[in-house]
Amino acid sequence: MSAEDEYTAEPFVPERGGLPALRRAAADCRGCPLHRDATQTVFGEGDADARVMLVGEQPGDQEDRQGKPFVGPAGKLLDRALAEAGIDPAEAYVTNAVKHFKFTRAEPRKRRIHKAPSLREMTACGPWLAAELAVVEPELIVVLGATAGKALLGSSFRVTQVRGSVLEEEIHGRRERLVPTVHPSSVLRADDREAAYRGLVSDLETAARILS
Ligand code: URA
Ligand code: SF4
Fold first, then answer.
1. Hey, which of 23, 93, 107, 165 has its CA 20 to 30 A from 82?
2. Which chain regions cross the lipid bilayer (predicted)?
3. Containing H/E element for 10?
4. Could you give the domains of the chain?
5. Hey, which of 28, 39, 58, 100 would you mutate to test ligand 2's pocket, going by the most ligand atoms within 8 Å of its Cβ?
6. Nearest ligand atom owner, CA of 30
7. Which mutation among 6, 12, 29, 103 tests ligand 2's pocket best, with the greatest number of atoms within 8 A of CB?
8. How many other CB atoms are found less than 10 A from the CB of residue 30?
9. Where are the beta strands (DSSP E) in the chain?
10. In the predicted structure, residue 34 carries a pLDDT above the cut 80
């Protein structure tokens, strides 16, 4: 086994202390190489008693600078879609499958371009998401896109096949209810943005019905 196979956040995750202890410890995580180039750990945000947990991929450029999830363009779109579907963003716990921003630069000092996390990085970061789920115990998980889906449900997850449906799966020993949908940044990239946005809102309405 090579050293790279051993990437994991596991030794950094505290066993008690709730979300504040998790957040403090995650700030010093060295579980995989992504901490090296990123500005800071972007941990989840929201109440420990939130009824719904939204899981994205990883922080983007803005999130990396501000230290909070979904504060950039994708987050603005997500907030709008949540409000339209009838889910109060303030009542949700929002987090990502991977807690550090991964990026490339076309040239030195140029704009940072988002790069998808590898399966190894997703697996390494998994203990943080598992710890968040154990504390928050949400009634429902909204899975935002393929990376979150693979992190929670395994590499065979295909968002196009299951979006908008209600799944029940055993995750880290707990029976979880999940509604998968597309990632909000895929809406920003879509040729027909309006149709893609309506699709996102429609999936979130399914989630809202479960919570009502
Ligand atoms: N995209 C994500 O998946 N998460 C964020 O926090 C921001 C953009
Ligand atoms: Fe730790 Fe996750 Fe950051 Fe890797 S991406 S260093 S596992 S917090």
1. 23
2. none
3. none
4. 16-211 (3.40.470.10)
5. 100
6. 2
7. 29
8. 12
9. 52-56, 92-96, 103-105, 112-114, 140-144, 167-171, 174-181
10. yes
Report the DSSP beta bridge partners of residue 104. Answer: 113
Q: How far is the CA of 132 from the centre of ligand 1 (A)?
A: 17
Left, alpha or beta for 70 (phi > 0: left; psi -120 to 50: alpha)? left
Instruction: Inform me whether the pLDDT recorded for 3 exceeds 80.
Output: no
pLDDT at 110 > cutoff 90: no
What pLDDT shows up at residue 1?
Answer: 47
Q: Is the pLDDT of residue 57 over 60?
A: yes
With the most atoms of ligand 2 within 8 angstroms of its CB, the residue from 13, 28, 30 to mutate is: 30
pLDDT digits (tens, 9 = 90+) for 177-194: 999 999 999 999 999 999
What's the CA-to-centroid distance between 90 and ligand 2, angstroms?
26
CA 106/CA 123 separation, integer angstroms: 27
Segment 135-151, tens digit of pLDDT: 999 999 999 999 999 99
pLDDT tens figures, 152-173: 999 999 999 999 999 999 998 9
Atom of ligand 1 nearest to the CA of 57: 3
Residue ranges around ligand 1 (CB below 6 Å)? 56-60, 63, 69-70, 72, 74-75, 96, 185
